[in-house]
Amino acid sequence: VRILVTGGAGFIGSALVDRLLAEGHDVDVADDLSTGSLANLAAARAERSRRLSIQRIDVRFPGCAELIVHRKPEVIFHLAAPLERASLARPLVDAEVNLIGTLHLLQGAVSAGTSKVVFASSASVYGPPDDVPVREGHPQRPETPSAVAKKAIVDYLHFYRQVHGLEYTALILGDVYGPRQQPDGGIVAELGTRLVAKERPVLPGDGTQTRDFLFVDDAVDAFARALDHGGGLAVNIASGTETAVVDLYERIAALAEVDDPPRLSPARSDEIPRLCLDPGRASIHLGWKPWTPLDEGLAKTVDWIREEQRAARTRR
Ligand SMILES: NC(=O)c1ccc[n+]([C@@H]2O[C@H](COP(=O)([O-])OP(=O)(O)OC[C@H]3O[C@@H](n4cnc5c(N)ncnc54)[C@H](O)[C@@H]3O)[C@@H](O)[C@H]2O)c1
Predict the structure, then answer these.
(1) Which of 23, 79, 98, 197 could serve as a FRET partner for 12 with CA atoms 20 to 30 Å apart?
(2) In a mutational test of the pocket of ligand 1, which residue from 32, 60, 212 has the highest number of ligand atoms less than 8 Å from its CB?
């Protein structure tokens, strides 16, 4: 199958590209390399360069739709987006990428005869939940510009399905972590980077807030399954387990061989106290279940961070 991955040079996108190439698909990557990097695709380029093409393209501009019309992908995995925390300070840029960029992509997909778009949505669309674990029918009260846009994108996807027959699946991702995630990409990468460097990180709030952490390989498996399953659905992709941030700290500190307790900061009013998603719908419609235990995923992540820091020291 010919596939386009937007954001394919990023953390999740590059892992997805590796998986799609390993399964024998032809893959085009469209990425502006703003937070992603070609280094993430180095192995894919070395091993399977004939079936991989990489275009440095910004989804905000018409070139993205032109690329789609030219390459005619059967399926588009749409992961290009600015970091959620950046959207608070720059809501206009976020909307340009998420809303205008997605519309360019959808228009291109219709013209090219693409059959399906698989979209990377986020647990942040729910806002502070009434109760956990959160099911897909829970009211959505997004509290960041990025989450507002992700919510609206699913409405657009629905519209394109109804009017143009373009199939979609929206994957509502928990906190994905793993190798290649940049320190500002999520709390596991942030804590891991600091603890491996023997710095003492500050936890947001008092650390009792819970989150739902999912290893990147498990997330990528859900994307791969969505290639031909879950049409017309938004589906939670998460571990279904709550982990307190202070518990996460202790697990990562143990792997990084750090004994110090965390430094705590005053609780922020915007911190959601509890978050975890029910992945039951994914089990029914995608045949997907999370499988990597947290400690195993964290160990792989800390090993990768250690290796990155060692390589950076050698380069200096
Ligand atoms: N990592 C998580 O925990 C998580 C959770 C929920 C949702 N998501 C979503 O999954 C997707 C991938 O996230 P990630 O964690 O891999 O982040 P990432 O920053 O590593 O990946 C995003 C990629 O998109 C590219 N990009 C950004 N703006 C672009 C633009 N205008 N045009 C073209 N490319 C652009 C970046 O260069 C990067 O390679 C995003 O849509 C994100 O919102 C991630």
Answers:
(1) 197
(2) 32
